[in-house]
Amino acid sequence: MTTPAAHVSEMGESALLIQSAGPMSLDVQRLYWALDRSCRDLPGVAETVLGVHSLLLRFDPQAEVAETAARLQDLWNETRPAGGQGRLLEIPVHYGGEDLADLAASHDLRIDEVVALHSAPTYTVFALGSQPGFPYLGGLDPRLATPRRSSPRQRVEEGSVVIGGEQAGVIARTSPSGWHIIGATRVSLFDHARDEPALLQPGDRLRFSVEEVSA
Amino acid sequence: MIRILTPGLGATVQDLGRSGLANIGVGRSGAMDRRALRVANALLGNAEEAAGLEITLGGFSFETLEPVTIALAGADTGATLDGRPLPRWWARTLLPGQVLRMGHSRTGMRGYIAVSGGLDVPEVLGSRATDAKGGFGGHDGRALKAGDTLTTGAEARGTRALDYGLSPRAWPDLWADGSGETEVRFVPAMEWADYDEEARALFCATGWTIEPASNRIGYRLDGPELVPTIRRELLSHGILPGTIQLPPSGRPVIQMLDANTVGGYPKLGVVIDADLPLLAQATLGSTLRFREISAAEARAARRREDDLVSAIRRATSHQRKG
């Protein structure tokens, strides 16, 4: 694979953003995982934040951001995809959320077909973000891609298994969300009291297994 | 120890927030008016990272159960101690049974109370700030309720009673008023280039109205619709407090301290760190203006805040020596 173009821009006084265009691609994301690793130790970098096809570098307030900005493009061109495979985790799902029937109908599918399509692939955690422990998952069967709800629900429970656009996800903290609810899991994706608060890490793979279906 | 009598519209325990955890989706949280909390801690000789109270729009009161030294900072809430006015930017030792009340903010949005030794709540993921979205940090991960009690790191028992503060004449910067028109400076970001000269000039010339739905998560602005020369579908990327996004509605949203760690809307720029405190105090319905500056100028502005806090620490240190 040839390295896709990446654009470096300022994010305020002490951060840089490097990003590449879509559509979501695991090959491109592997480059960003590798770039993340090589950027964490750059002088003055306080933290790095992975996105989908992007990396945000936040610097200490007095760091010389301009020097790194000049180097970042070179660093990107030299980046090779991160190798290896992350852990494989299984998330048991009780299918039957509020939107399961409507989502099936909107795609002209039966409920058992939606469950089969959702539980078949091995998903990859591209990045974590938005809320504590929330995974951006790649790998959703395109037949299940569904535009987000026109108005978000004010309260979606922790553990809700959801679909938003071409992404699958699991709500990690009870919160408002515009994604479609098709099931629930008891697996906790985030617990601040654990040594590793977030269950998942970028690069991890996960499968949804069918615990129960109720329509 | 203090006991909350009335929590007002939203009182939370905050410090300077969490950093280094955005990669697992944990945001910064922390005081919206970071400068005010830093000044309050400086007045008491507290550590920079000491936790205090952030009170939104006043209506807050507590009684003291043990002697405690506090400092009031931020918005003018017409605070009283047992019915007598207590000025802001002021440190005072309170005795058991005394009641401190804040009225509704007359200027500004957020008042701060620091306590000597800091509020003694558990540190969670490196900070004592309340993460409302995560439901952790601060006092049980939530806003304060009537009847909650909070202990302080160092009770004032047996030490000399303190009563001193900062004057408007010596520290005029602290008395700026957030109720009329607020100007904040920003550094342009990636999609600034997607707007033509006219749209950019309109963004900077407009007096944007801060909508009532603005809060610790974000500020929504009302004004003319800004139309880009190109519409992009962006993937989710890391964002920071201060990020000015332009959703398809064409009206800007500024992400604040409780915002998501990633976002996907086009971003015009990022409000500089030194001006986030001004934003924190700009009242709902008031007017906001933007001025473009460079990243280097923004870093200089940040140093001026550090200098102010150090100067206050130095100027008041003799007051704390017994």
From TrEMBL, chain A:
Signal peptide: none annotated. One of its GO terms (molecular function) is 5-oxoprolinase (ATP-hydrolyzing) activity. PANTHER family: 5-OXOPROLINASE SUBUNIT B (PTHR34698:SF2). It comes from Salipiger mangrovisoli. Keywords: ATP-binding, Hydrolase, Nucleotide-binding. The keyword Nuclease does not apply. Its EC number is 3.5.2.9. Residues 6-200 form the Carboxyltransferase domain. This is 5-oxoprolinase subunit PxpB.
TrEMBL record, chain B:
Keywords: ATP-binding, Hydrolase, Nucleotide-binding. It comes from the Bacteria. InterPro entries: CT_A_B (IPR003778), Cyclophilin-like_dom_sf (IPR029000), PxpC (IPR052708). It comes from Salipiger mangrovisoli. Residues 23-308 form the Carboxyltransferase domain. Pfam families: CT_A_B (PF02626). Transmembrane segments: none annotated. This is Biotin-dependent carboxyltransferase family protein. SUPFAM superfamilies: Cyclophilin-like. PANTHER family: 5-OXOPROLINASE SUBUNIT C (PTHR43309).
